[in-house]
Design goal:
By secondary structure, this protein is α/β, with parallel strands linked by helices. It contains 3 helices and 3 strands, in the order βαβαβα. The chain has a 3-stranded parallel sheet with strand order 1-2-3, with helices on both faces. Strand 1, helix 1 and strand 2 form a beta-alpha-beta unit. It starts with 10 loop residues before the first strand and ends in a 5-residue tail after the last helix. The relative contact order is 0.25. The model has no long low-confidence stretch (mean pLDDT 90).
């Protein structure tokens, strides 16, 4: 019998934010703390003016994708992120 590790399905998580500050830090820590799952983490930022973008730039994890651009509200932001989902 061959031993083969079965990978779990890929999961995509979308976080939409603007000027989220410490809430964004906690969210990223929680999502990126997940193990035993192939993870795609999309953060759609609405061009924050607080420390959110500088924090995101410090994350060195290949599972995170950051999209920072203007949008027309939360539903537009979700649509923009959803177009990049692979999971």
């Amino acid at each position: 019998m061959s031993s083969c590790k079965i990978l779990s399905p890929e999961v995509s998580v979308i976080t939409v934010c603007k000027n989220a500050g410490d809430d964004l830090v906690r969210t990223c820590d929680s999502v990126l703390g997940q193990v035993d799952v192939q993870l795609q983490f999309l953060v759609k930022d609405g061009v924050s003016t607080d420390s959110s973008l500088s924090y995101l730039e410090t994350i060195q994890d290949p599972r995170i994708e950051i999209i920072s651009e203007h949008d027309n509200g939360i539903y537009d932001a979700i649509d923009k992120a959803f177009s990049k989902v692979r999971g």
